[in-house]
Design goal:
elongated; about 220 residues; mainly alpha; 12 helices
Length: about 220
């Protein structure tokens, strides 16, 4: 009788592969090494991913799936600007919780000679949906400039927070401008840049920090 594949092995294989790729480079990414780290057999890679190429693509998809889990936990409130700032904080929380996947999903690591095509790269853009919707609410509420482009605001948020988080993971953000302080300043500047008043933006960004509880930091 054949044994059913262990569902718990799948995320473990993804995490181990991402860590090895991020920390040691493509030479560490072998079926034998990954299986040994997880305490499984090499057959598990073929059972769950149809081989190493499938595992590499799954790392990218899984990285965005985990990001979406963080975004989904940000519930809309009466302050859409605070909601938008909280989405930025959720983005950072995901990166800090999944640093190796974060590196892989954005191409910071060589993917061990396996091809990740444009469709796989663009796959993760669905995570922008929540950010675009929230930016639209900010515009509709009058907090952001009338006639603004919600998609553009979402991309500005993405590029700004992504850049800061990448520097943080690289250990570049130190006193007197550690990541927490820089993120608050960055979020306020972004909100002001798209039409909010500095006073209102500062209050909303502060409110978003107070809402950063376990429901956002550690989603199920």
């Amino acid at each position: 009788m054949s044994r059913r594949p262990d569902p718990k092995a799948r995320p473990a294989l993804v995490d181990v592969a991402a860590r090895l790729l991020s920390e040691e480079g493509p030479q560490a990414l072998s079926a034998r090494r990954i299986a040994s780290e997880v305490g499984s057999s090499t057959m598990a890679l073929y059972t769950h991913f149809n081989g190493m190429g499938g595992l590499v693509r799954t790392m990218v998809h899984e990285g965005f799936a985990r990001l979406q889990q963080y975004f989904t936990r940000v519930q809309p409130s009466e302050d859409p600007v605070a909601d938008l700032a909280l989405l930025g904080r959720a983005y950072r929380c995901n990166a800090l919780a999944n640093p190796h996947l974060y590196t892989v999903m954005f191409g910071g690591s060589s993917l061990a000679g396996f091809s990740i095509d444009g469709e796989d790269r663009l796959h993760g853009r669905y995570t922008l949906g929540d950010v675009v919707e929230c930016a639209g609410r900010c515009i509709d509420s009058g907090r952001f400039r009338a006639g603004g482009d919600a998609h553009l605001v979402a991309h500005q948020m993405w590029s700004a927070v992504h850049g800061m988080v990448t520097l943080e993971l690289g250990g570049y953000l130190i006193e007197p401008y550690p990541a927490d302080r820089l993120l608050d300043s960055q979020l306020i500047s972004l909100m002001v840049g798209v039409g909010d008043s500095r006073e209102a933006a500062t209050a909303s960004v502060a409110a978003s920090a107070r809402r950063l509880g376990p429901e956002v930091v550690a989603p199920d």
